[in-house]
Amino acid sequence: MNITIPESPARCRFEPKQTGKPEFTPDKHIPPADIWQEKAEKLIQSSRDNLAKNSETLFWLSNRGIGRETAENFRLGWIPGEDGKDIYRARKAWGLPEILKEDGKPRALWIPRGLIIPYIIDGIIHRIRIRRPEGEPRYYVIPGSSMATMIIERARRAFVVVESELDAITVAAHNNLAGAVALGSVSAKPDAETYGILQDALQILVAIDYDDAGAKAMKWWQEQFDRCDRWPVPQGKDPGDAYKLGIDLDQWIKTGLLPVLTMNDPAPVKIQKPEIRHSEPVVRHEAPENLSAPILELYDLLCRNPGVIIYNTPNRFTVLRNGKYVGGRINELVFRTPDVTAYILNHPAEEIDGSNFIE
Fold this sequence. Notes:
Low-confidence stretches: 8-19, 264-279
CATH class of the largest domain: Alpha Beta
Radius of gyration: 24 Å
Number of strands: 15
Helix content: 25-40%
Largest sheet: 5 strands, mixed
Order of helices and strands: HHHEEEEEEEEHEHEHEHHHHEEEHHE
Structural class: alpha+beta
Distance between the termini: 44 Å
Strand order of the largest sheet: 7-9-8-10-11
Number of domains: 3
């Protein structure tokens, strides 16, 4: 089954970011200590060997867009347990403080059977999360792990925000333009390092569930970040589910990205001195009969908003008013309506407003 991506899903429209960001102080995280690192490395290595023998789990991962090579690259693994049962170790052996039970005996470190999902940055293990085959909790983080936000391909200029780390891996594996951010839960916020990276991003596509909790979370994202769009998968509840249903994830992501990010040179050009244009009346020209209704609508909006400029150069494709991003209907027409976008990209002027929109 092969399901195509809609050209411009109505449910994914851009919402303009509110003026003034609510105060937010992101958390900072440090990696676990050396003893923990040593134990974690041994566990990850042995689990990788076990995963290579586990055809059932490899098939499950493949169905969700994570092939064998991707699993190896992200050092996914499988813990079969000991005699088919969960593993228990002394917490002190992992460098963790001792915790006593009610009977005064030390509590053991629980390492359940399941799929290992490590988060590793520059060779340093920050976290080990385990997806259990059954039982609650379904996901378990080994104590001592850092709760740093997983961010993949951090040098990229666009990011897809998802809930689970497996979904982030799937997204990263199926496109070469956007990085991926895994929150862990719909209400979680990015940590300090990830927050700083996202502040510099040209675009953020938020693909979290859009229930009541998701709607509340989406409001926060749009208040904090410029160019932040709600971009749920067309089918299923998450990218892994969508892949299983036949969605082309690369196409889904590219459809949501600004044209500047899909060009050969996505590097932004910063405006050194934003030009201040006064709101002078625009002389309207007679529009050709072959122009579509959306193009004519944009022309009307530009005439009624003379300070708005569409910058159309190989290195910059954006809509600004006095150096600030323009949202609302103008933004939606320019970036989300294919025939309007094509008209602008084929326009001879590098700066387009109401006075020269009609050639």
